[in-house]
Design goal:
It comes from Aquabacterium commune. The chain has about 260 residues and is of the alpha+beta class. It has nine helices and eight strands. The protein folds into three domains: about 45 residues; about 70 residues, Alpha-Beta Plaits; about 80 residues, no CATH class.
Amino acid sequence: MLRYLVLILFAVNATFLAWSQGWLKPLVGVQPDAQHEPARLQQQRHADRIAVLSGAQAASSGPAATDATTAADAMPDAASATSSAASGAASIAASSAASGAATASATTTGICLQAGPFRSEDMAQVGTALKAQLPADAWTTQAVPISGIWLVYMGPYPDDELYAKKLSELRRIKGLNFEELSAPPALAQGLSLGRYTSLADAQSGLATVKLRGIRTARIVVLRPQGEMQLVRVAQASQQAQVALSATKLPQGKTFSACRP
């Protein structure tokens, strides 16, 4: 038994010796001192520049030096970023300044507002109202031609019973259009059988209703032909706009944007 053990040990040692000397490489394809990843050697660059440094040299060329080099390399990028940020801030500031200038210009220049037209007898009240809000030279007036209005009219009927009788008579006439008037006071509780913008048209309308049996109608002037006054504030600032919006004008009229 001991003899077999000695033979086995001898065979193992002989095999190990043959493998360690590379005699078995043709059989197993591997030898103990062989490079198992030769591709790494091919990937090395400038391997001949590698040098072993002493302790002092390693300290001077260590992480601190590397960090300094990295910081130096990063400085151009940081400078570029700072320059870009400054340029962006300057652009934003310029845009804000331009916007502010435009707003300031609009506020200073103001907008055009107008009100009216007003009758000649109303202009004294308009002037008093505007003087309380604006300098005397801040507004102008413009004459606007106004066409007259003529009515084919019946009345007035101060007696309620007679007024009701006339209403009943007109309602029995088929296809007749008429209007009850409550203003102006001189024509209140009267009846309009038509409104016209020329005297000739009113006369034609009167002839028509008479053919239908209405004998008491006549022509009256609701508004005479003439001129009215338009008030215009060419450059109303924001403060003036607020003041004018609260100004009380005749006939409840208000200021609005100017029309061409």
